[in-house]
Amino acid sequence: MKISREIKTAVLVLSGIALFLYLFTYLKGEDLFSNSNTYYTEFDYNALTLSSGVTVKGNKIGKIEDIKYDFESGKTRVAFSVTPELKFSKNSIVRLYQDGLMGGNALAIIEASDGAMATSGDFIKSEVKPGMISSLEKNFSGISEDLGSTLRSSDSLINNLNAMVVDESGDGLKQTIAELNATLKSFKTVALNANKLINQNDEKIASLLDSFEKTSGELAIFTKSLNEADISKTVKDLDAMVLKFTALASSLEAGEGSLGKLLKDQTLYDNLEAATKEMELLLLDIKLHPARYRRILSKKEIPYEEPTEAELNNN
Hints:
Elements: H1 5-27, E1 37-43, E2 53-56, E3 59-70, E4 75-82, E5 93-98, E6 105-110, E7 125-128, H2 132-138, H3 140-166, H4 173-200, H5 202-228, H6 231-254, H7 257-264, H8 266-288, H9 290-294, H10 309-314
Helix pairs in contact: 6-7
């Protein structure tokens, strides 16, 4: 089959137009063979271009599709497309921010954690984040005034320091530095004397340290001996002994036992005292009249006589 020249020409022209459109969209960053979801938002003014990007956490996922001015609301309506793989809430925020120091702007999707998923064609709320350059432009007058005030204060401070340095009086900085230098020299002298004293008594200091180390070792041995001596058991035994003495004193106080009765029974005490008195008189009589007791087995009985007052006093 023979193709006419007109058909070949038409095919060639259409192919050229298709290639031109593809290259044009490719240079704009678009892909004719990829699909995307389109969403809408609006701002009080236009600071975007069709080349501005759309990002999520710094990653580019879309671009601006259309920018139109809405005459009814007086706001700029922006259409932007993102890759269909991105799923975000309808309650998310589209933020206009400054992308770089040269003043370029872009859109960022600040994802929300609640609400239904946004679908293509939904309207998303927007906000504007002031850029560094615009903030400096707004506050430049205040910054310049503060800078001028700071420079004037710095100039006054430098003048005052200069006056202090030039001042030769007692309040001057030179005098203060001189006194500080004298103090440092005195301190250096004291340090040298202290170093000399340490060098002269080096042997004594070493001996003192050795003695301290020896004493510490002996103290450690003594402490170990106390631990091995089971002081706690000795204290417990002493405590038990004190409890027994306390119980014995209580029984004596109550008049229990022979010793308790002896301490508490007045009659027994009087009898013992009388018996002791008679025993004393018997011993005195034996001393005064020994012959009487030598003949104790004899038939002749010698009657007992009370000792006289003089005999009692003499003995």
